[in-house]
Design goal:
With 225 residues, this protein is of the alpha/beta class. The protein has one domain (6-217): Rossmann fold. It contains 8 helices and 10 strands. It has helices at residues 19-31, 57-65, 72-75, 86-92, 99-110, 134-141, 155-168, 188-198; strands spanning 6-12, 37-40, 43-45, 48-50, 53-55, 78-80, 115-123, 145-150, 173-179, 203-207. The strands form 3 sheets. Strands 2-7-1-8-9-10 form a 6-stranded parallel β-sheet, with helices on both faces. It has a two-stranded parallel sheet with strand order 3-6. It has a two-stranded antiparallel sheet with strand order 4-5. A hairpin with a 2-residue loop joins strand 4 (48-50) and strand 5 (53-55). It binds adenosine-5'-triphosphate (ATP), 7,8-diamino-nonanoic acid and magnesium ion (MG). Magnesium ion binds at residues 19-20, 58, 119. Its EC number is 6.3.3.3. Belongs to the dethiobiotin synthetase family. InterPro entries: DTB_synth_BioD (IPR004472), P-loop_NTPase (IPR027417). Keywords: ATP-binding, Biotin biosynthesis, Cytoplasm, Ligase, Magnesium, Metal-binding, Nucleotide-binding. Its cofactor is Mg(2+).
């Protein structure tokens, strides 16, 4: 039987904290160790019309950072037009998204790769339907979790609550990344230190604010296997 690929689930303290950028950087880091590395965005909510095609920026960024091309039905089984919570975006399209269908895609994708980075949508407990959340998908995966902390005022509370929820859900917080999404956050270093002391998980990297962030130029530690 083929061995299971390395797989991590990337969540964030919120939407817009740089999960996509950090997931792409993690894909580049995995490529130093594994040949077949692929990103998955199980649910993309918010599509753009480009050259006559509806595309997800997140899916495109993960695909650009992957070393293999896999079918879109596996790397992004659910693509919803509206930029809103997945359960509401799905409702507008009369679609019922289930954790089971996301898991089926992930299982098939796992047969094609040696390492996989799965990017969540929004924060930890974002609904995908009226009864299930993306956290349920992460639980089904039993994957270690990497938390992207968008360094801005309010992030300490969000980071600590998210870490608590991940652990209460029985998963391992394998590491966290301090992503500087605000160019002028006061006492940034002190905030990072506070999280170093309280999150009780490895800090995989501190990413500075950049006017044009590029995942290829971000160096991150990988979580311990
Ligand atoms: N270190 C950084 N410096 C400057 N801008 C950043 C940085 N990290 C992320 N950004 C910008 O912040 C915005 C939001 O980031 P991004 O879309 O990656 O968030 P996300 O957490 O993936 O959101 P979603 O929940 O929609 O997937 C993007 O425009 C991105 O380029
Ligand atoms: C549209 C956005 N960029 C993400 N794709 C989805 C964010 C869902 C957030 C839901 C919530 O927590 O209120
Ligand atoms: Mg994203």
């Amino acid at each position: 039987m083929a061995s299971e690929p390395a797989c991590i689930f990337v969540t964030g303290t919120d939407t817009g904290v740089g999960k996509t950028l950090i997931s792409a950087a993690l894909l580049h880091a995995y490529r130093q160790h594994y040949a077949r590395v692929v990103g998955m965005k199980p649910v993309a909510a918010g599509l753009e019309l480009r050259d006559g095609q509806w595309v997800s920026d997140d899916v495109q960024a993960l695909s650009a950072a992957s070393s293999i091309t896999a079918p879109a039905r596996l790397t992004n089984p659910v693509a919803l037009h509206h930029a809103m919570s997945p359960h509401l975006a799905a409702r507008l399209e009369d679609r019922h998204v289930t954790v089971a269908e996301l898991l089926a895609a992930q299982r098939e994708l796992a047969t094609l790769c040696d390492a996989m980075v799965v990017e969540g949508s929004g924060g930890w407990r974002v609904p995908v339907n009226d009864t299930e959340t993306l956290a349920d998908f992460a639980i089904a995966l039993q994957a270690p979790v990497v938390l992207v902390v968008g360094m801005r005022l309010g992030c300490l509370n969000h980071a600590l609550l998210t870490a608590e929820a991940i652990r209460r859900d029985g998963l391992t917080l394998a590491g966290w990344v301090a992503n500087t999404v605000s160019p002028d956050m006061p006492v940034l270093a002190e905030n990072i230190d506070t999280l170093r002391q309280t999150l009780d998980a490895p800090l995989l990297g501190v990413v500075p604010w950049s006017a044009a962030p590029d995942a290829r130029h971000i160096t991150l530690e990988l979580p311990a296997p």
